[in-house]
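Allow me, if you will, to draw on your knowledge of protein folds for a short while. The matter concerns a single protein, recorded as an amino acid sequence and a row of backbone structure tokens. Kindly check, if you would, that the fold set down in the tokens agrees with what the sequence suggests. You will find the record immediately after this paragraph.
***
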Amino acid sequence: MSPASDQSPVSELHFETRDLLFEQLCLTVVDQLNQAIRQRGSASLIVSGGSTPKPLFALLAQSELDWAKVTVTLADERWVDEDDPASNAKLVRENLLVGHAAAASFLSLKTPESTPEQGEKTLSDRLAVLVEPLDVVLLGMGGDGHTASLFPKGDQLARALSGTGGTRCCAMRAPGAAQPRMTLSAPFLLHARQVVILCTGEDKRRVFEEARAGGPVEDLPIRAFLQQTPTPVAFYWAP
């Protein structure tokens, strides 16, 4: 591992292999959740979907932790049924909420409404049970610089980035998204003790470096997390 940090709230942790990355990140997440449980009796873990975090989920599921005091939810979700192969909830239930972690509570971002726009109020009320600040927020990043479902050219990107009116969640439709989405807003995700951006591969590293160099947040929405100071952000990367 080769850490590199400066005066910004963004630290970079580069690992020689993905196995080393996932092992270290698992230890870090468990430690932070344990700290939260000791300090206030509960903890929150916000995760992202996709294939990249699956090895981390497997390690977390095997970790000794008072999972009954942990609430897990997602940074974003496709507006599909939870048994749909594209559902992030399905991925989390099958890969994280097993073993020891089966005792955790899961807060789904999918509501009974037919569209994410109709579901915003229901979900916002549901999210109110989470104690703020959130404890650990685990994000990924797409090759277009999106994170969660904060997509460039997303129809509600400005509102999701600004969190106008205390918005916790926001429907999102975007050219790069095959299905309508629900995403947590950037301010809600940033009201956290720790944000982790997990990426692998040289392409993602180049996008991260471009984003960190500065520029409009709307072009590379991951910049919302890199161009702020209150919340510590750790970039975990391996080839």
